[in-house]
TrEMBL record:
Lineage: Bacteria, Pseudomonadati, Pseudomonadota, Alphaproteobacteria, Rhodobacterales
HAMAP family (UniProt xref): DusA_subfam
Record-stated family: Belongs to the dus family. Belongs to the Dus family. DusA subfamily.
Originating organism: Celeribacter arenosi
Protein name from the UniProt record: tRNA-dihydrouridine(20/20a) synthase
Catalytic residue list: C83 (proton donor)
Length: 313
């Protein structure tokens, strides 16, 4: 979710759900340790619980980046062993690390030493390229378990590092939910979450009959209300009032006002809100007005009022 789940996106998602665990976009350890890009660690206190997702393959750098995350108060530090993008592969980050389980084990051991009581977790694929997932994934999980990892998020697709684009890697390799479910049955002591192709809250609830958690990416971004608005009640059994779509928009007014007053552009926030009316009357007009006007100088929350569907204005 690089360039998607930034701090503005996460703040908006937290408006919709108070209890779901939010993940940052992947931040590379070299960017933090060597590049000094500490602004990538910024978040609002309201975002808790929030996890920092790190990319990297150097145990020392990952340990240092983990210490930075702990100092900033993150609730979890996650190592990404699933991203298939070319720029990630060139830095030996992401899914290519599925081919180097010993290195991954060394990385997470270093991260755990730096994390103290903050959980270190791993997001992985079921395999890459010509690997047999039914052989590779059980071995990979066993190695992580031996290294002290107790929480793993598994994207239920292979990643093809040659021949498929990152976008194609999200759709073309077939999903193998059964394999991931079997991993949970084989490791009742581990907290295992499933990811990949889960497009509705109902589908997430079905997986939760077997798995400990469900990670939702694109659907939560493109249809945030449908995925998140009722998650507290259905997943966490917390009787929070479910906001209307319109109430969720107005709950962002102060945040947007502060961002614009500090010199930020309206579109930096509203680009993450385009899907709030997905499937509803007026959704196309909402997206068009915000997309066309959000970058203009002086654009403010008034543009959201203008864009609201007529029944909600």
């Amino acid at each position: 979710m690089m360039d998607w789940t930034d701090r503005h996106c996460r703040y908006f998602h937290r408006v919709l759900s108070r209890h779901t665990l939010l993940y940052t976009e992947m931040v590379t350890a070299p960017a933090l340790v060597r590049g000094g890009a500490l602004h990538l660690l910024d978040y609002s206190p309201e975002e808790h619980p929030v996890a920092l997702q790190l990319g990297g393959s150097d145990p020392g750098e990952l340990a240092e980046a983990t210490r930075m995350a702990v100092d900033r108060g993150y609730d979890e530090v996650n190592l990404n062993v699933g991203c298939p993008s070319d720029r990630v592969q060139s830095g030996t980050f992401g899914a290519i690390l599925m081919k180097s389980p010993d290195l991954v084990a060394a990385c997470v051991e270093a991260m755990q030493s730096a994390a103290g009581d903050v959980p270190v977790t791993v997001k992985c694929r079921i395999g890459v390229d010509d690997q047999d997932p039914h052989v590779v994934l059980p071995d990979f999980i066993a190695r992580l378990k031996a290294a002290g990892i107790t929480r793993i998020q598994i994207h239920a697709r292979k990643a093809w590092l040659q021949g498929l684009s990152p976008k194609e890697n999200r759709d073309i390799p077939p999903l193998d939910y059964d394999l991931v479910h079997r991993m949970k049955a084989a490791h009742p002591d581990l907290h295992l979450s499933i990811n990949g192709g889960i497009a509705t809250l109902d589908a997430a609830m079905d997986h939760l009959k077997v798995m400990d958690g469900v990670m939702v990416g694109r659907a939560a971004y493109h249809q945030p209300y449908d995925i998140l608005a009722d998650a507290d009640r259905r997943v966490y059994s917390v009787d929070n009032p479910v906001l209307t779509r319109e109430d969720a928009v107005f709950a962002m007014e102060d945040y947007i006002g502060a961002h614009v007053a500090a010199g930020g552009k309206l579109a930096q926030v509203t680009r993450h809100m385009l899907g709030i009316f997905a499937g509803q009357p007026g959704a196309r007009r909402w997206k068009r007005i915000l997309s066309d006007g959000g970058h203009r100088d002086g654009a403010s929350f008034d543009l959201l009022r203008e864009a609201l569907p007529p029944r909600a204005a």
